[in-house]
Fold each of these.
Amino acid sequence: MDLCDREKNTNVRISLPAVCFVWQIAMIILFGVFIRYNEESSPFWIEHRKANNISSDIENDFYFRYPSFQDVHVMIFVGFGFLMTFLKRYSFGGVGFNFLIAAFGLQWALLMQGWFHSLDYSDGKIKIGVENLINADFCVAGCLIAYGAVLGKVSPVQLMVLTLFGITLFAVEEYIILNLIHARDAGGSMVIHTFGGYYGLSISWMLYRPNLSQSNRLQGSVYHSDVFAMIGTLFLWMFWPSFNSAITDHGDGQHRAAINTYLALASTVLTTVAISSLFQKHGKLDMVHIQNSTLAGGVAVGTAAEFMLMPYGSLIVGFCCGIISTLGYIYITPFMEKHLKIQDTCGIHNLHAMPGVIGGVVGAITAAAASEAVYGHEGLINTFDFEDAFKNMTPTRQGGHQAAGLCVAICFGVGGGIIVGCILRLPIWGDPADDNCFDDEPYWEWACEHIPSGKMTIMSHPVWLTPAPILT
Amino acid sequence: MDLCDREKNTNVRISLPAVCFVWQIAMIILFGVFIRYNEESSPFWIEHRKANNISSDIENDFYFRYPSFQDVHVMIFVGFGFLMTFLKRYSFGGVGFNFLIAAFGLQWALLMQGWFHSLDYSDGKIKIGVENLINADFCVAGCLIAYGAVLGKVSPVQLMVLTLFGITLFAVEEYIILNLIHARDAGGSMVIHTFGGYYGLSISWMLYRPNLSQSNRLQGSVYHSDVFAMIGTLFLWMFWPSFNSAITDHGDGQHRAAINTYLALASTVLTTVAISSLFQKHGKLDMVHIQNSTLAGGVAVGTAAEFMLMPYGSLIVGFCCGIISTLGYIYITPFMEKHLKIQDTCGIHNLHAMPGVIGGVVGAITAAAASEAVYGHEGLINTFDFEDAFKNMTPTRQGGHQAAGLCVAICFGVGGGIIVGCILRLPIWGDPADDNCFDDEPYWEWACEHIPSGKMTIMSHPVWLTPAPILT
Amino acid sequence: MDLCDREKNTNVRISLPAVCFVWQIAMIILFGVFIRYNEESSPFWIEHRKANNISSDIENDFYFRYPSFQDVHVMIFVGFGFLMTFLKRYSFGGVGFNFLIAAFGLQWALLMQGWFHSLDYSDGKIKIGVENLINADFCVAGCLIAYGAVLGKVSPVQLMVLTLFGITLFAVEEYIILNLIHARDAGGSMVIHTFGGYYGLSISWMLYRPNLSQSNRLQGSVYHSDVFAMIGTLFLWMFWPSFNSAITDHGDGQHRAAINTYLALASTVLTTVAISSLFQKHGKLDMVHIQNSTLAGGVAVGTAAEFMLMPYGSLIVGFCCGIISTLGYIYITPFMEKHLKIQDTCGIHNLHAMPGVIGGVVGAITAAAASEAVYGHEGLINTFDFEDAFKNMTPTRQGGHQAAGLCVAICFGVGGGIIVGCILRLPIWGDPADDNCFDDEPYWEWACEHIPSGKMTIMSHPVWLTPAPILT
C-alpha cells in the first residue's frame, strides 16, 4: 500500500507556482510604477544635506534606525520562524512557510503602507527609506501571528491568500488608528498584535476541524524540536526592545522605549516560570509556557513603551502578562478548542491577542495620565505628536483616542478574519486532510522511499508517533 | 514500577513560584522607590540637548551603545544559554534556567549597580539609561559563568539564590575595583570572569557529590546537542568584540577594544585546534575544546582591550590562551575533580577563571607600560581616566592598582562562593539526587507516560544512555 | 573487525597542529612588523578630531560601520557555518572547519589587503580600523564559498592550504579589479562570489573522485540537520543588506544598498518556491532549494546595490536569480557531476558562481546607464568615485570597466583553483578515502566505542544510513 495515499488532494504544483509568479510579477510592475528612493537614500542626499545645513552623513535616518531594523528583521524571520518549529514533524513548514509569506508580505506592505503614509503627492510616487522597511516588517508580523493559529492546518497557497488580505487589512486599519484617530502605537500592541491575534483566531474559527484529534499524535514536540523553538523565543525576547523602539522618535523616544521593553520582558519571565511550575504536578516547568508566555510582556508594553510608563510600571505590566498568558495556555486554549471551536496551534490568543489588548489599555491609561509636569512642555508635544491638526489635543482626550484605536484593531481583526476565513474554506486551496495536519509530508519532499520497509515499522514509529521524550 | 521514583524530593512546586513571586514583587517596589529614567531617556532630553548645545539627537548615548548592547544581550541569552545545551538530556535546563536567572539577575543588578554608580544624590533616585542595561547584563554574566560549574546538579531555586548573592557580591566587588582602587576593566576580565569563575568553582566545591559518577551516562553529549552548543559558542565568539567595547570611551576607545578582541579571538581558534588535535589519538578534534577554548582569548583580552595592546599583542594573548585553556580541559579539569573535589560541568576554570586571571595580568602590564609617547597627552588621561581624585596617577602606579583589583576579584569569588555554597547545602532547595543529575526530567514536564513500555527499552536506551555517536 | 579501519590515512595529528602553530606564529610576527591602529582607533583620535573640526565622537567611522560589521561577522561564522551543517553526519565538520579557516583567513586577509589598500607609506605600516575588519571578513567569504564545493571531501589541512592561497589570490584580484580597473563592487558579486565560486569549482574539478557514489549514503540530510541549515540560510538572508552596504559610501550609499538588497532577496524567495514546487512530483518543496536558492538575489545585486538600480530593478534581479539558481540545482549540478567531473557538494555554482556573474553583468549595465539626471552632478561623482586619476571617466566607459572586472574575477577563480587544486592533490594532506567522505568520524572524536555492538546494528544504521525522513 502506498504510504502517500491521502483522502484529500494536497497537490499544489500548479497553484503555488502560479500564485508566486503572478504576485511577484504584479509586485515588479507596481514597484515600477510607484516606488522610488526617498531623499535620504537617493544620490541627491548630498545636495539635500548641504541645502538643509545637516552637518554630517551620520544624521541620515539610516544610522538612527538601521540597527533596530536588523533586529526586527531577525525577529520576523528567525524569531517567528523558529518559534514555529516546535512541532515534531512540522519544522520545515514552520520555518519555511514563515519565510515564504514574510518575503511576499513585505513587498505588498511597502506598497500598501506607502500609499497611505509615504506618497509624494508632487509626483505620485511612494518614497521609501529604512523606516518603510521597518514598517513593512511590522506589517508582516501581523500575518505571521495569524499563521500561528492555523499552523499545520493550511496549505502554502492558503497562507499566501491569508497574507495578501492580512497586509491589506493591516494597512487600512493602521491608517485609521494612527492617522485618523491619532492614536500612538509605537510597538504595535493594538495595530500589530491585537489585530493579528484576532485575525488569526477568526480564521481558525472559520476553518474549524471537528475531527482533528485524529492526528493528535503529531501535535506535539520532541526534545530537539523544543530546543529549536527556544532559538525563536530567545531572538524574539532579546530583540523586542528594538521592535518597540524601532520607529519611535529619535533620541529619548527610542531610548525610553528600549528600556521599558527590556524591563517588562524580564519581569514576565519570572511570573511565567512561577505559574508554569505552580500549575503542574511536581512543580515541573512546561516548555510551551517558557517558549511563549515569556514574550507576553513585550507585546503588552508596545503601545506605552515610548510614554513615561516608568521603570516600575513596565515591571508591573510584565508581571501581570506573564501570569495571564500562562494561565491562558492552561485554561483558555483548551476551553476555546472545546467550546468555541477555535483551534489555536501556537496559542496566539495567549501570546498576542490578550497581551495586545492589555497593551492597548495600558497605553490609553498612560496617555490619559500624561502631564507637562512629567514630560515637560516640549516633551509632551513631541511624545504625543500634538501638532498640526491635533494641536489642541489634551492627554485625557488622547487616552480616549487610544481606546478607540484598540476597538478598531479588534473589529478589523475579527471582521477581516471571518471574511478571509470564508474565502479560505473554498475547496480549491489544496489544504491537508485532518490526518495530514501538522505533517511536513504533504508539502515537502521526503526521501522516504529509500527506507527498507521492515525497518520503517520498527524504527520510525516510536520515534515520531510517540511524544518521544528522550531522543537525542 | 514507577519510572519517576527518586530518592530525593525535587518538587519545587511551592518554593520556585514563591521565590519568583516574592522577588519580582520586591523588584517592583524597589524600582518604584528608586529607579527613574536618566536625562537621555526622559522627555526632558530635548531641553537638555538645547541647553547643552548638543546639535543632534544622534549624540544621545543610545546611538553610541545600543548596537553593542544588543550584541551583549544576545551573548547573555543565546550565547551562554545555548553553550549549556551540550548535555544530551539537559538542554532544557541549560537554556531555560539560564533564561530564568538572567531575567531575574538583570533587575537586581540595575538596583545594586545603580546604588553604587548611578545614584542621583539630589533626589535619591537611580537614573538609568542604555549603559546601565549593558552593565546589568555584564553583572548577570558573572552568575551565568558560575552556573556553568554547577550545571545539571542544582535546582532552579538554588540557581535563584546563587544569582541573588552573586549579583550582590558582584556589585560590591565591582565598586571596590573600579571606583575605590581605580582599576580599569572594560571587558571585565577581572570583575566578570575571574570573579564569576572562582565564585562558581567554590560553590561547586561546597556542593561536591562524591558518587556522581553513577549518573555519568548522562554527562555527555549527543550529535545534535553538540551542534546546538555551537550556536552558543559562535554567538559568544562573534559578539565578544561588542562585549569588550560596549562601555569603553566613545570614539577610539570603542573602536580599539573591538579590534583587539576580534584579533585575540581569531588567534585563539588556531591554537585551540592545534592542541586539541595534538593531544588526541589520531589527531581528531574534540568538540568540547572547540566549543569552549576558542573563547578564552576574548576573556583574556577584556581588561587590556581598550589600552594600546597593539594588534600583535592581541594575537599573542589569544595564542597563549588557546593553548592554556585547551590543556586545562585535558589535564586540569580531571585533576580538579579527582583531587580537589571540584566538579566543573562546563569547565569554567579553563574558559573563564584562568583566562580571566591572565587578562588581569595582561591589563596590569599593559597599563604599567603606558606612556605619553604611545597614547598622546590627552589620550593617556582619557584612556586611563586620570582625572579628579586620580589626577596624579602614573601608568606604573596604575599597573599596581590593576594587580590589586585582580586580587580583590579572586578573593570575592572564592570567599563569596564558599559562603553561598554553605547556604546552598541546606536540605531545603529541592536539588536532584546524584542519579537525577544532568537530567531534565526532575524539573521539566515530559510526556513520557505515553511510551509503550516495550519500545522504551528497545528505542530509548541506546539513544540517550550511550554517547550516541551517529544519531541524526 | 575494527570499525575504524580505513584504507587511507586521515591522521592529521602532526600536520594540523604544525600548520596551525607555524601560521599563527607567522601572523604574530607579521602583525608585529606591519600592523598598527589607524587614526580613528588610536588614542590620538581626540587630537585628530579637534584638528579636523569634527564636532563629535559619533563621526568616528566605527559608528557608521560597526553594526554592519557585526552582521557580516554573523554571516561568516553562523551563516556560512550553519548552512553547511545540512549533511547528516558532517555537521561538526561543516560548522567547525568553517570556524577554523575563517579565523585563520581573516588574519591573513588583514595583511594581504592591508598591503594593497591601507599601507601608510610614511612609516611602512598598515593602519587598520573597522573597515579593514569588514574587508577581511569579505575576503574570508570567498574561501568559505570555495569550501562549499569540497565540503566533506577534504581534510582540515587541505582547507588551511585552500584558504592561504585563496586569500592571497583574492587580495591580488581585488586590487586589480577595484584599483587598477576601477570597477565598483560594493557587495562583491564579482570580487567575492564569482571568484570564490569558480575557485571552489576548479579545485573540486581537480580533486574529482570518480567512485564517490560509494559513500552516497552519507551525502544527504536528516530532518534536524535540515533545520540546522535553515539557521545558516536565514542569518545569511537577513543580514545580506548589511553585507552589501557595509563598505559603501556613508549616507545615501549605505542606505540605498540596504534597500536594494532587501528587495532583491524578497523577490528571490518567491521564484525559488515557485520553481521548486513546479519541478517536483506533487508540487512539493525541496529543502535544498529553500536553503540555497533563496540567497541568490543577494549575490546578484551585490555590485549594483549602491547604484540607482531602482526598487523594481532589484525585484527583477531577484526574480531571475531565484529561477536560474533553482533550475541550476535541478539540472546543472547533476550535469556537472556526470559530464564535467565537478562534484559540488553545496551547489555553489548555483548559489554563488552563476548569480555572481549575473551580478557583474547587472552592475555593468547599471553603471553604463548612469546619468547626471538620475544621480545629480555630485551624486554621480560620489557614487562612482570619478575622482583623481579617474576624473574623466564616463558612465559608459565605467560599464566597460565593470565588465573587464568580471572577466578578471573569473580568470583568477578558474586559474587559481586549478593551481591550488594541483597542490591539494599531493598525497600528504590526510584527506579522507571515498568511503570516509561526508563523515565526521575521521576528524572528530567520537565516543563510539561504548556502544554495545549488537545495538549498533539495530539502532544506528537505519538512523543515519538511510535518509531518515521522520526522525525527531
Amino acid sequence: MTDVTEQLLKDTQEHVDEEKRRVEKMGNRPWQPWIDAEWGFRNHWYPALISRDMPEGSHKAVQLLGEDILVTRQNGSVRAIEDRCPHRGIRFSSRPLFYTKETITCWYHTWTFDLDDGSLRTILSSPDSKVIGKCGVKTYPLVETKGVIFIFVGDIDPPPLEYDLAPGFLDEDAVVYCSDPYDIASNWRLGCENGYDPGHQFIHNWSEMCINAGMHTSYGYTSSKKEVLDTTRYTEEECGPKGFTRKVEKTTFNHTAEIPLKDGSVQQLMLPLARGKSDEELSALTDIIRLGTVGLWMPCSLKVTTFPVPHCTHYEFYVPKNNKEHTYFQFGVIHTQDSEEAERWLGEDGRVMWEVPAVKGFTVDDAFARAEMQKFYESEDGWLRERLFQPDVELTMWRKFASKHARGIQTEDHVKGYFSR
Amino acid sequence: MTDVTEQLLKDTQEHVDEEKRRVEKMGNRPWQPWIDAEWGFRNHWYPALISRDMPEGSHKAVQLLGEDILVTRQNGSVRAIEDRCPHRGIRFSSRPLFYTKETITCWYHTWTFDLDDGSLRTILSSPDSKVIGKCGVKTYPLVETKGVIFIFVGDIDPPPLEYDLAPGFLDEDAVVYCSDPYDIASNWRLGCENGYDPGHQFIHNWSEMCINAGMHTSYGYTSSKKEVLDTTRYTEEECGPKGFTRKVEKTTFNHTAEIPLKDGSVQQLMLPLARGKSDEELSALTDIIRLGTVGLWMPCSLKVTTFPVPHCTHYEFYVPKNNKEHTYFQFGVIHTQDSEEAERWLGEDGRVMWEVPAVKGFTVDDAFARAEMQKFYESEDGWLRERLFQPDVELTMWRKFASKHARGIQTEDHVKGYFSR
Amino acid sequence: MTDVTEQLLKDTQEHVDEEKRRVEKMGNRPWQPWIDAEWGFRNHWYPALISRDMPEGSHKAVQLLGEDILVTRQNGSVRAIEDRCPHRGIRFSSRPLFYTKETITCWYHTWTFDLDDGSLRTILSSPDSKVIGKCGVKTYPLVETKGVIFIFVGDIDPPPLEYDLAPGFLDEDAVVYCSDPYDIASNWRLGCENGYDPGHQFIHNWSEMCINAGMHTSYGYTSSKKEVLDTTRYTEEECGPKGFTRKVEKTTFNHTAEIPLKDGSVQQLMLPLARGKSDEELSALTDIIRLGTVGLWMPCSLKVTTFPVPHCTHYEFYVPKNNKEHTYFQFGVIHTQDSEEAERWLGEDGRVMWEVPAVKGFTVDDAFARAEMQKFYESEDGWLRERLFQPDVELTMWRKFASKHARGIQTEDHVKGYFSR
Ligand code: FES
Ligand code: FES
Ligand code: FES
Ligand SMILES: [Fe+2]
Ligand SMILES: [Fe+2]
Ligand SMILES: [Fe+2]
C-alpha cells in the first residue's frame, strides 16, 4: 500500500477502535441482567402446552429455556421430566415407553424412571443394579389450570404459580380461550419489548383487524414524562405477581403527522383510514383503546384489557424456547359466573370475538416485527448498539424492573445439563 | 435484582461451577485416547468402497477420517489419491481427467499426477516447470479383496491388512456378500459401542426380523462379572488382528421383567412374543444366538458368528467419514469350498438368508439408535457426562483396549492437510 | 496405547507441528493485505445494480462488502442508504415507506431519514424528539452511468468513479450492454485471480462457445518471463485508474501436450477440436485472441478486448457481496458514434454477438471454477497452503499491485457497523 492508503487505513482503524471502546465502556448497563438473559430467566413458571393437546396417555417433547422436556399425561395427571437419559443421553421422547402409569422406560437399555420424582426405579434387564435409587432425571414442577400446562424451570422451591402470572388469569370466574401456540425466530426479550412498546403501534396499520374495522390506529402512541408517571402502576408486593401497567387513557394517538421538506414546506400526512372522518368519528373508533390498560408481567408476559372487545382481556407470553426462538402463547379471557356464557366463549364467541381478530388479524404483525429485529440483536451487538429515544423509557423501565425481580438467569451451562437441569 | 435473587443466582452458579470442576477433574479418563479419537484412529485400514461399484475407468470421491480421497480403477487396478490439487486446492473429482491409465490431470491448470506415487509427473501446459518432480499428492495404500476396497489412512508403512480385520474375513474359502454401505449421522465410536453393547439388545424388539420370526429377543443381555471373564477372549498377538470376543453361551436373555409400584405391588412384564410359549419353545427360538460369539476388532468393526443363520458370519464396520458421520459397511460371509454354493451365496442365498433379515430387518435399528445418541455425545459433553453402570464394563474394556492398540489419533490438523494428509 | 503407538503418535505430531510452524512463518506474505481483504477493499467504487432493474419509485436491498444497503429511485435519481435503522436495527427494506420523495420512514417507529444525507429528519410520532438531527444512517455516494449504478463503500471523500474503472467504459461513445448480475459462492479474490490467470484457459475447453465455434482453445497459455515483462503494461498514475494489461500477442497457445509414461514412451495429446486441422486453420481460429489484451483493474475487475468479437470489449466485476460470495457483473461494450449501431448493439446485436457467446457460453465455466476453489481457500488455509508455480507470477504481480493500491481493507467490524458503516 502507498503511504497515503496506509494512513487512511490507520485512521479508519482508529475510529473503529474508538467506537468499540465507547461501546465496551457502556457494556455494563443499568439493565445488565436483562442483557445477560439470552436464554431466559431461571426459577420461573412458563406456559408449556395446551391441555387439549395432551389427551390421556399422550406425550410431547417441548423445549423451555433450552432444556429438553418430555411431558405426558398418565392416569389423568400431567408430568414433566427431563428428556435425556442419564445413562447415555437418549431422548425418551423418540420412543417413549410407559409400561406403568408411574414410570417411563428408556428404549435403549431399559432404565426405568419414576414420573413423579425422576428417580431410577429399576432397570428391566438389571433389577439388582447398584445404580438404582442413586440416579435420576430432573422432574419439573407443573400446574395444569385453565386449560394450560405451566412448568417451572429452575432449582429452587417453586413459589406459587400466581406469582408468575398477570392478575386475573387464575380467577375462579376467568374463562380462558387458548389459541394454538407457535414458534417465532426471535429472542424472547424482543417479544416482551415489542408487546409493550408504545411506539410500535404504527405497525398495526398493516393489521387486518384494524383495516377491516376501518380503525385508523396511529403513528405511534405518545405520552409526556408526566403522563407516563401518572398512568403507570407498579405491582411488586413480595408475595404476588410482579409487573407494571399503563392506563392508556392519557396516551395520545396521533393520526396525523408531517415531514418538513427541504424547500421549507411541509408534507402533511394522515392515516388513510382517518381521512374524511370527523373528530367524533375518529374518537369513537379509538375510545375502546382508551378504556384499556397494558401491562408487562414477570417473567415474560403481556396483559391487555378491553381488547379486542370491551369484556375481553388478552394475555400473551413470549416463552424462551432457546436463545434464538420463543414460543408465542395467547389467551382470550372473560370473567363470568354464567356457565352458558362461559361455554359460548370457549366455543364460537371466543373464536369470533377474540381469536380471529386478535390472533389472526393483529398479533401476527407483532410476530413479524420481532423476527425482523433478530438479526441486529443477535449478530450485530444490538443490545449494546441500539440508539434509544425518550419514549423507550417505558422499555428501560421494564428492563430494570425485570433485572430486579428475576429469580435467576439461565445459562448455556444449565442448557447442557451441568447443573442437572 | 433483589438481594434474595442475587443470593439465589450465586448459589446456583456455585453448584454449576462445582459440577464443572467435578467433570473436568474426571477429564483424564482411563480411556482418554478413545475420547480424543473424534476423527478416527490414524494409521489403520478401512473399507472404503465395494468393488462392484468401481468398474473399469470409473472414479468415486470418498471421505475417510475427514480426508477427501479420489478412488479410480485404471487397467483393472484401483488407486486412491488425495482429492485436492496441491496447486490451488481443486478437487480432481469434480471433473476427473485420465488422459493415460497412469495419471490424473487436474482440470484447472493441467497439473498431472502419477496415480501410483502421487508425484507431479508433468504439467500439460508447462512441461518444463521446475515444480515437476518436487511436488505431489498423497496416495493411499489400497488392497482390493473379497469384493471390497480397503484403504490405509496414515503416515507409517502399513502393516498387513489382516491386522485390521476380524479373523476369517480373508480366509481363502470365505465367500463375502457385500451390502450397499450408507452414511449415518453419528460419530463412529457410537457405532462400535452400540454394536457390542449387551444391553442394547432390547432395541431389537422393534426389528422386523425378530418380529417376523416370532423371536422375542430380550430386555437386554446380562452376565455376571464371572461370566464376562469366563467368556471373553482377547486377541492381541503383536502380528495379527487385535480384538476380543464374547461367547454368548453364558449370557442370560431376560424375557420377563418387573417394575415395583408405589403401593408395594409389582407390575409383571413379558415380551409380547414370549407370551403363551413354553420354556422349550422359547429356548428353541434363542438357541441359535447362544451358539454364537460377538467380537469387536480394531479399528472399528464387529464380528458376529452364526447370524442370522448358523452358517453365516456377519461383519460390520463403522468407518469414520468425518467427526459427525460414519459409513456403515456390512458383510455376510460363509465359508465353503463348493463353488456352486459360493455362487448361490453371492446371488439369491446371501440376499435371502443374510441381507434382507440382517441388514434390512435388524441393523437398521442399530443405525437409528446410534444417530439418537449423537446430540448428547456431540453437544452435551456426553463422553464426560454419561453415567455408566455395571454392564457397561464390556464397553470400557473396549475403550481401554482400543486406546492401547490404536496406532494413532486423527486430528483436525490432519484433515486440513497440515501433514500432507 | 503401547509404547510403539505412543512413539508413532508423537512423531506424527512433531511433523504436524513443524508444518504448522513453517506455514505460520510464511504468514506474512509480500501480499498480506490481499490475504487480509476477505471482505473486500474499502474506499472503492463498485457496480451495485443495473439501471433497468430500478424504475421510478422502486427499491432493492443489496449487500456490498457485507454491508446491507437499500437502493431506491425517487424523482428520477437513485440513492443508497444503510439498510439498518439506528434505533433498533430494523431493515427498512422489509417494508420501505417513501412518504415523500426526499425521505424514508422506518416501518417500526416512524423514524424518518433524509435520503440525501441520511440524517434523522423527523419522527412522525415524536416530532419534538431531541434525537432528531443528532442521529442518522450512512448514505453511500452513488453514480449512475451507462445503465449501471455504482456505489462507493468507505469513509473517505470518494475519488472520481473513473479511478476505479478500467479505461474505456465511461467513454462518451461507449455503448454498454449489461447482462443480469448473479451471485457466486466464492470469495471475490478468487474471481480476480481466475479471470486473469493465463493457465486457467484450459477450462474453456468445456465452454459451449468454444465447442460450438470449433475453437480448440488450449492446454493453458504460457509465456516466458521475458514475454511477460515485454507485454505487461502498468497503469498507475496517481489520478486515474490503476491496473495492468497483458497483450496476448506473444502468448503461446498450446494445443498439443504430452505425458511421459513409465515405460519410457510418451503419450501424445491433442485437443479434440485441433485434430485434423492444418496449422493455418488453427492459427486462423485463434488469431482473434492474439489481437486482444487482458487486464486487471482496481478494485476487482477484468477487461478483455476483442472478445468475443473484434469490435467488442468485455468488462467484468467480481463484487464482494460478503466474505463468502461475490456478485458477478458483466458488460459487453462497443465504441461507436453511430446512434443506429448503438441501438442495434443494445438490442439484438449485443445479445447475439456478446451475451449469448460470452456470458452464457463461456464465463459460466469461470463461475464454476471459482466456486470449486472456495473450500480450499475458505476452510483449509488455502491462502497460506497453495503451492504456486512460475506462471502464477502473473497473479502475484496482481496481489502485490492490489495490496499497494488498495485504499483500505474491509473488516468484520465495519460489517457489524462499529464504524457507522
Ligand atoms: S441410554 Fe437410556 S438406558 Fe441407556
Ligand atoms: S488447481 Fe490443480 S492445476 Fe491448478
Ligand atoms: S427500529 Fe426504526 S424507528 Fe424504531
Ligand atoms: Fe402489537
Ligand atoms: Fe444391534
Ligand atoms: Fe475464463
